[in-house]
Amino acid sequence: PRRRSAGRRVPRGRVPSMSAAGMPRLGRRCPLTACLAIALAVPGVAASACQDTYATAFKGSGGAVAPKKVGALYNEWCKKNMRVSSAKSMDELCAPLVRKVEQKMAWVPPDTEVTPEIACESLEKLKERFPEYVAVAEAQMKSAGSEEAKKKEHLDKAKKLKKRLDEEVRKMAQAWGKSFVDDLGKTVRDVSLEVLGTASAEGPRDALAKSLEDAARMNVRGVETKLLQKLDEAVGTWASKAAREAAKAAEL
Q1: pTM higher than 0.70 for the full model?
Q2: Pairwise CA distance, residues 139 & 143, whole Å
Q3: Residues 22-27: contacts with CB under 8 Å, at least 24 apart
Q4: CB 195 within 8 A of CB 187
């Protein structure tokens, strides 16, 4: 008689399910969809699996876990445990999941000690748990949205300014470069003729002038490149200072 297999075979192509004790069938790593489900506390995902995940993530916290720490702790767990085939780095893959966790923790009072149970609750459940903090969180969200809008406005202005200045600097550098090369060539030819006299061969004198003209053209291109690099840095500095000044003005 044929012996039965000791364990049930998983049909090819089917993703193993998570067990109630965590995710042992997936080993220490989880597929992207499972990580996302845990990050969002999607209904249907075993509560114990989610709580086991956060319990593991919180082990390295060194004490109580405040809401602002949850995102960073989840990020460390995600980078060590996500299992997915992608050309992206683990930082890039985990970043959107971490943002979801941080967005959810924004609805938890900052003085709360976050437990795995709290971390696994949905946004609706968190609002029910902390009803007195809902208005505060909503106000903070509105303020954060306003700050983001201001940052985007400064960024858009910086991009527009850089684009326009980039065009002008290129035009000016090219016009100056052409004028400089032409003047240099004429000066070298005139001085060479004056010093060496009309009896000297014109070919070598012209070669001397062309050699210096070629060198000048190369250096002019270098000056243009350096100016454009400095322009990028200068516009970035302007954007940072302008944003700080705008923030100070808003506080008055």
Answers
A1: no
A2: 6
A3: 22/48, 22/49, 22/52, 22/53, 23/49, 23/52, 23/53, 26/83, 27/83
A4: no
